[in-house]
């Protein structure tokens, strides 16, 4: 007897309880019109409240009304990007010309300078791996030769 009184499915029971179309959300208390309750205010979205966002939105609406696509940019922005691109190309060309104008003598000096830097780095690495007593001994030799040269002068 008890089982026969239960509805066929849980869905039909939910439908009977909510005749408003199946809204799952609870109804807020402030709709009842209780004057003692403070009605909540909708929070402002800081992104939408920003001036730049509003200007961008206004520009998009105007472009849409004119029939311009989102892909097309304002004239000022296109001109500025064109100038930047031209400036970068010009700088690259100047750098390439400067490299071409180097004489063979300057190139050779640059290569030698790089080789000397590499040799100095390698010597520093070797000195770092040497035991400390060798480093101290080299320092002693340097000071002894300097004092010997001073006595001769």
From TrEMBL:
Keywords noted in UniProt: Actin-binding, Cell cycle, Cell junction, Cell membrane, Cell projection, Coiled coil, Cytoplasm, Cytoskeleton, Growth regulation, Membrane, Nucleus, Stress response, Synapse
Keyword Ribonucleoprotein: no
One biological process term in Gene Ontology: actin filament bundle assembly
Keyword Flavoprotein carried by entry: no
Region (Disordered): 116-153
Compositional bias per record (Basic and acidic residues), positions renumbered to this chain: 116-141
Pfam families membership: DUF1151
GO MF annotation terms: actin binding
Protein name, entry field: Actin-associated protein FAM107A
């Amino acid at each position: 007897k008890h089982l026969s009184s239960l509805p066929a499915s849980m869905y039909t029971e939910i439908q009977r309880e909510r005749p408003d179309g199946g809204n799952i959300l609870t109804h807020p208390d402030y709709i009842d019109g209780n004057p003692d309750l403070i009605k909540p205010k909708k929070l402002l979205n800081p992104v939408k409240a920003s001036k730049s966002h509003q200007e961008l939105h206004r520009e998009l609406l105007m472009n849409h009304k004119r029939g311009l696509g989102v892909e097309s940019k304002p004239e000022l922005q296109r001109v500025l990007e064109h100038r930047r691109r031209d400036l970068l190309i010009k700088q690259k060309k100047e750098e390439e010309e400067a490299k071409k104008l180097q004489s063979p003598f300057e190139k050779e000096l640059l290569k030698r300078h790089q080789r000397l830097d590499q040799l100095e780095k390698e010597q520093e690495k070797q000195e770092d791996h040497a035991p400390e007593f060798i480093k101290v001994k080299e320092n002693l030799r340097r000071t002894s030769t300097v004092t010997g040269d001073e006595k001769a002068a």
